[in-house]
Specification:
- This protein is 38% helix and 22% strand.
- The strands form three sheets. Strands 1, 2, 3, 4, 5, 6, 11, 12 and 13 form a nine-stranded mixed β-sheet that branches. The chain has a three-stranded mixed β-sheet with strand order 8-7-14, with no helix packed on it. It has a two-stranded antiparallel sheet with strand order 9-10.
- Strand 2, helix 2 and strand 3 form a beta-alpha-beta unit.
- Helix 7 runs parallel beside helix 9.
- The longest helix has 24 residues.
- The N and C termini lie far apart (42 Å).
Length: 338
Amino acid sequence: MDQVAVVVLNWNGREMLERFMPQVLCHSEAEGVAIYVVDNGSTDDSKEWVTASFPSVRLLTFDENLGFAGGYDRALRQIEAEYVVLLNSDVEVTSGWLSPLIDHLEAHPGVAACQPKIRSWREKELFEYAGAAGGFIDRYGYPFCRGRIRNTLEEDKGQYDTAIPVFWATGAALCIRRTDYLAVGGLDKHFFAHMEEIDLCWRLWSAGRQVCCVPQSTVYHVGGGTLQTDSPHKTFLNFRNNLLMLYKNLSPVEAKKVLRMRFFLDYLAALSFVLQGKWAQARAIRKARRSFQQMKPLYKDKVSAQENSVIPSSVTFRGSILWSYYVKGLKRFSELQF
């Protein structure tokens, strides 16, 4: 069994593989490290290109696009390694990126998963939206990061270079013990894409395990490689999956209160899109809420979080990040008081 498996999920992404796989192999290959490309039903020639260009890469192929969650989940149940790294195909790794992550898990047995510091590939001095220096969540389920609140990205000046526990680690570069991954049920394939890593990390915390950011490792993420930021389908997935995540992981009493507030906040977001003339985005929110109601029976036997949750207050923001950002004008993580 390998110690580490670096797993890159691909769907019609030859361009990204050509651009970033050489660095993955150059900066990751070592004794006990295996590199995998998992093809998620691609119709381009990316599978053939990987086989011809990188014969040392292990290739898994699926007949259909199972989404981020389903594709990775099926792959990680087949791959045997002590640690697995979920690495987006649009991530540029750097020299020595892998060792700090593995070293941190080796030194801290209570930590199940960790992420590197994520900076923007396009503007390399800035943190990147999907992960930055570690993810957090507010009381209504809205995620944000050290280095990124809403759409405000901070410049990385070393202000978040301390390795700390975080509520969630980004799926763009997630290093996790495979035993922990399997113990909490893995990624939820019903999510398809978006929010699935936050849901996974929530379940890790509820199981008494920890999640961390290890900024001694740095990677650069393009972002938006599959769905653009303004895609209505992306809006649909984000809103629906966020509601599913809350329903799954909150205690019934807390879920009822939070989801009642989210009804108003979601339709406020839809109204904002209407006022901007973005009707497709507004419809996507309405569709997401309908889909959430339809999918709730899938989780009728869910294991709810207990009132005395093991999740520490240091990784959850008990206020509203929307109120802090839009009303109080707090744009930087360091300005928040947990």
